[in-house]
Amino acid sequence: YLDPQFTFEQFVSGKSNQIAYSVCKEVAQNLGNAKHNPLFLYGATGLGKTHLMQAVAHEITKQGKTFYYFTSDKFVNQLVNALQHYKIDEFKAKIKKADLLIIDDIHVIAGKPKTSVEFLNIFNDFISKNKQIILASNRHPTALTEFDEHIKSRFSVGLSIELEPPEIDTRIQILQKKSKLLGIVLPKECALFIAQHVVANVRELEGALNKVVTISRLSSEPIYLDLVQKALKDVIAIRVQAISMDNIRKAVAEYYEVSVKDMMSKKRARHIARPRQVAMALAREFTNNSYPEIGQSFGGRDH
């Protein structure tokens, strides 16, 4: 099964996913190219990995080629079923006939020795015959510590590409494209407001838009800024609660490998001053604290 909306035409590309988008389009036109085989897409949930993989499948069916697309759970379940009924050779032979094999959330297979062995057999057959494999996970292949080194090294033979959370311009474009598909009018200021407050991934953006559309229809009102603000007040409240001065300091200190104590101190060395400045800037952008409040919370500095 493929989602009919998961095509290249419906994918919104931006700085965060442009490379992945371009490579997937290239793969669809040139299956089995050694430098892109296997193609390993990784990143957090809801960033478009499944969309891009299915877009490749949509594209190759137009060329008369065949594919198998599995979520990892379905792959495991079908493989276990084949083993229990002594039909594993038949199961593998059927898959090996395809031109493209796609497995989503490949990390779920880790820790299942029999499944891993049978998967590796299929994997090696595809690679040896220059047939395309596309895998997706929440982590880079080298970070999949549940797999042994041999399997991780096989994953790394081709090309690994990360998808990152979409930047605000891309989030706005996604909202505009989704609203067009839904046949609704989403004013620019409403798209901007949603994009500013829903930042994690595409799924959360779609969820926020669906909530706004539902409330608009139930109240028989057009979509306008006040309605959007009311519809998303719980989303905004949760985000405000999650982002505080304290956890900004902790996150920045961890990223730059300095202590929170040093950031709060009077020290002006560059390796401490830069993280302090970044933390202050983030505090200004993501909290409601004023300049004097931010200065005070960073060791009693003035605004």
Short description:
The protein has 303 residues and is α/β, with parallel strands linked by helices. The chain has helices at residues 18-29, 49-62, 72-84, 88-96, 113-128, 149-155, 168-182, 188-197, 202-218, 225-231, 233-242, 245-256, 260-264, 270-286, 291-297, and strands at 39-42, 67-71, 100-104, 132-137, 159-162. The model has no long low-confidence stretch (mean pLDDT 87).
Would you write up a description of this structure?
- This protein is an alpha/beta fold and 303 residues long.
- The protein has 15 helices and five strands.
- The chain has helices at residues 18-29, 49-62, 72-84, 88-96, 113-128, 149-155, 168-182, 188-197, 202-218, 225-231, 233-242, 245-256, 260-264, 270-286, 291-297, and strands spanning 39-42, 67-71, 100-104, 132-137, 159-162.
- It has a five-stranded parallel β-sheet, sandwiched between helices.
- The termini are far apart.
- The model has no long low-confidence stretch (mean pLDDT 87).
